[in-house]
Specification:
The protein has about 325 residues and is of the alpha/beta class. It has a single domain, classed as Alpha/Beta hydrolase fold, catalytic domain (Rossmann fold), CATH 3.40.50.1820. It is about 35% helix and about 15% strand. The chain is built from 12 helices and 8 strands. It has an 8-stranded mixed sheet, with helices on both faces. Strand 1 and strand 2 form a beta hairpin. Helix 2 packs across helix 12 and helix 6 crosses helix 9. The longest helix is centred in the C-terminal third of the chain and has 17 residues.
């Protein structure tokens, strides 16, 4: 998936060969994903936020033949700007300038030790980046947690958004209101410290890829596992804990009727994502993350929203079926 034969290299590092007694050690990356290559040049936006200097990494890929429109891709909780590679290439070929940031606390961006994570703050950071780049009315494409961020951005800056695209966003339901017990930052932090390649792969198989694992997904496991096992793993785990707390305690579903920009929902129907589901009472778990119903409810709640469903795909349709997803995305944003 990445250039320069990176997937083959990562697989060779990560997986045992014939007759091997045990797998070779996986790479360990720095707290800003130092050592992991992105498929496009990485730029950095330096700014001050909450009385400290921070840097936000981002990709800025020009259009092959510009149509004057810009797509901004907002990654999910366990994703990075690099995981949008297929969409960046497809959008660029279709005439769009594409900007894909790594949010503060994620991937190649700063990992502040003390930061009040909120969707409003992340939206303000993203708006400042786009203003610095001269982007006024982008098409916002948000996946998973990035979908929650995109919704908040559209609520904060409705006149600064051309279109909103939500790809299997989390936050289509209020888990706490449905019975998810309180989860402390200490609990989230301890859970994140235990993250491993095996736990990542198992979770992603069941949730992102509808139970079907393919070797082409392995680089993204290596990316996350290396970030979570590297020299800055405590800082990475702490910011991750703060982000999980933000996701659970700042629901956006109640404000869907206030979204005032054209909205497209792209929903994999075999998604079952619900943050903290494993900590919910056993009888509640099957009732959470019902995306076939949640997608329809969101489409009804957001004025004028259009819904496209992918019957056989899970939480990451853009990765499971990039060609089919890219067609739906480009057709959807062209129909304005």
């Amino acid at each position: 998936m990445l250039r320069n034969a990176l997937p083959a290299l990562l697989l060779a590092l990560a997986l045992p060969g014939p007759g091997a007694a045990e797998p070779l050690p996986r790479p360990a990356y720095g707290p800003e994903l130092e050592g992991f290559a992105y498929p496009f040049p990485v730029e950095r936006y330096t700014f001050a936020s909450q009385r400290q200097p921070l840097q936000m990494a981002y990709l800025d890929v020009p259009a092959a033949t510009p149509n004057g429109r810009t797509a901004v891709l907002l990654h999910g909780k366990n994703f990075c700007a690099a995981t949008w590679e297929s969409q960046i290439r497809a959008l660029s070929a279709a005439g769009y300038r594409v900007i894909a940031p790594d949010q503060i606390g994620f991937c190649k961006s700063s990992k502040p030790a003390a930061y009040q994570f909120s969707f409003r703050q992340l939206a303000e950071n993203t708006h400042a980046l786009l203003d610095n780049l001269g982007v006024e009315r982008p098409i916002l494409v948000g996946h998973s947690t990035g979908g929650m961020l995109a919704a908040h951005y559209a609520l904060l800056y409705p006149k600064a958004v051309e279109q909103l695209v939500l790809v299997n966003p989390v936050g289509l339901e209020d888990w706490s209101a449905k019975g998810l017990p309180p989860i402390s930052l200490a609990q989230w932090y301890q859970r994140e410290l235990k993250t491993s390649a095996e736990s990542i792969r198992a979770y992603e198989t069941a949730t992102y890829y509808a139970g079907r694992w393919e070797p082409r997904y392995e680089p993204w496991v290596t990316m996350l596992a290396g970030l979570n096992s590297g020299p800055g793993k405590e800082a990475v785990a702490w910011d991750s804990a703060l982000v999980y707390d933000m996701i659970v305690t700042q629901p956006v579903v109640y404000r869907f009727p206030q979204i005032a920009v054209p909205t497209l929902l792209l929903i994999g129907q075999k998604d079952n994502t619900a943050i903290g589901k494993d900590l919910a009472p056993a009888e509640l778990r099957p009732k959470l993350g019902n995306y076939p119903e949640l997608g329809k409810e969101a489409a009804k709640a957001i004025p004028g929203a259009r819904l496209v469903e992918f019957p056989e795909l899970g939480h990451a349709p853009q990765m499971s079926d990039p060609d089919g997803f890219n067609r739906a995305l480009i057709e959807g944003i062209a129909a304005r």
